[in-house]
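Pilot study result, target chain (203 residues):
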Amino acid sequence: MFIEPTFYQKNQGWIEVICGSMFSGKSEELIRRLKRAHIANQKVEIFKPLIDNRYDEKDIVSHDQNRIHSTPVGAAQRILLLTQGVEVIGIDEAQFFDENLPEVCESLAQNGLRVVVAGLDKDFLGRPFGTMPQLLAIADSVTKLHAICMRCGGLATHSFRKVSSKEQVVLGEKESYEPRCRRCFTDGQKLNAQVASRIEDHE
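Predicted structure:
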């Protein structure tokens, strides 16, 4: 169970990671925690990767259309330059950042900041995504959220890609992805492999 840092932890570095599949409520939870910090009169700064402009160029927007203003950045190191006088840092879509993000988060925490990070823990093939494994390893608190499997209604831990592409990063929403449990995800991967094999045989 997640316990938000209390006032006596204010000057202690702290890294929280929120992870899970697509449509599991990661951004919603990130926004909730950051708004609570803002209500508590803490100085909050929020960042997202420059490439993520699906809903808005600047705002972080959840699938439920809940939103909070953020600063898009192209490189993780930029975050260090934009956090003067800040107490709480929020970072969304962490899997899209470069390999320096864990080091940046560690540096911020060492300087006494609370760092709240949200991201996909697995890509469309079910593999660890980007620097998320390192972030999970250095986190003081990890919250893993689940969606509902679109096939069987069970707990979904995977993001199944419905469009044909082998690129690891393909931005999209419900038209491109759906949450699936482990079994339904594996069944879908096998079916895709069979279809791809038939196509190759006919070429």
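One observation from the pilot: Helices lie at 26-39, 77-81, 101-110, 132-138, 182-202. A full batch analysis is planned for the follow-on phase.
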